[in-house]
Amino acid sequence: MIHEGVDNSKRQFLTTALTVVGAVGTGYLAVPFLSQMQPSAKAMAAGAPVEVDISKIEPGQLIRVAWRGKPVWVLSRTPEVINVLENETAKLADPNSHDSNQPEDSNNPLRSIKPEIFVAVGLCTHLGCSPTFRPEIAPNDLGPDWKGGFFCPCHGSGFDLAGRVYRSVPAPTNLDVPPYRYITDTLIIVGEESTEASA
Questions:
Q1: Rounded to whole angstroms, how far apart are CA atoms 144 and 106?
Q2: Residue 68 forms part of a structural domain
Q3: What is the span of the domain harbouring residue 124?
Q4: Is 95 part of any domain?
Q5: Domain count of the fold of the chain
Q6: Are the beta carbons of 191 and 47 closer than 8 angstroms?
Q7: Is residue 1, in this structure, part of any structural domain at all?
Q8: Which residues of 81-98 are buried (b: 16+ CB within 10 A; e: fewer)?
Q9: Claim to verify: residue 29 and residue 100 sit in the same structural domain
Q10: Could you tell me which residues are beta bridge partners of residue 76?
Q11: Is 59 part of a structural domain of the chain?
Q12: How far is CA 121 from CA 15, 23, 163, in A?
């Protein structure tokens, strides 16, 4: 056997070159595979918190935003509405929200951090229809006892302007209040708990 002419430096160079090319190739194959396991930008945005500017909301006005694919209502309540909410509780199924879903800092009769701003998920707790905003007092179609609120046209459930459900309707619980917090007096963020609630 003749081993003359074998160049070990060439062999070392080829081994190193093939190792580098193999590592680069493996990286090119692994990156797309691993990146597809990450949630898409659309999926991440769907669950991301949403900032809501409430500086231009007029008293009595409702604005709508989307959070996690659901409608979220932000309502500016007047002092008159707040007074009615505090005194008209006899017809409500759960006036103190014991069986309802809301963050700790909204677990009060008005179901809000600040009395004048109400935030709720705009889906009926019966079958998920979106109730209509009916702020008028005693309209013909809802009767003389209606003090303003949210009415679900799908099956007739009614909620007051704190999202509390009336008795003897299909909806089993009050409207859900999502986690939210104030960044400033005129800016809230839906989808994040208040730091005061966790403290």
A1: 29
A2: yes
A3: 45-198
A4: yes
A5: 2
A6: yes
A7: no
A8: bbebbeeeeeebbebebe
A9: no
A10: 117
A11: yes
A12: 63, 50, 9
| Dist. CA 188–CA 196, nearest whole Å | 14
Write the CATH number for 128: 2.102.10.10
| Predicted confidence pLDDT, tens digits, the chain (199 residues) | 555 666 677 778 777 877 877 777 776 766 665 555 554 555 445 578 999 999 999 999 999 999 999 999 999 999 999 999 998 889 999 999 888 999 999 999 999 999 999 999 999 999 889 999 999 988 888 889 889 999 999 999 999 999 999 999 999 999 999 999 999 999 999 998 876 544 3
Domain shared by 87 and 170, yes or no: yes
Statement to judge: residues 169 and 82 lie in one domain: yes
d(CA 156, CA 166): 10
Residue 97 gets the label, from left (phi > 0), alpha (psi -120 to 50) or beta, of left
Measured CA to CA, the distance from residue 53 to residue 34 in angstroms comes to 38
Q: Supply the pTM of this predicted model.
A: 0.73
| Backbone φ, ψ for residue 72 (5° rounding) | -120, 130
Q: Are residues 30 and 49 in the same domain?
A: no
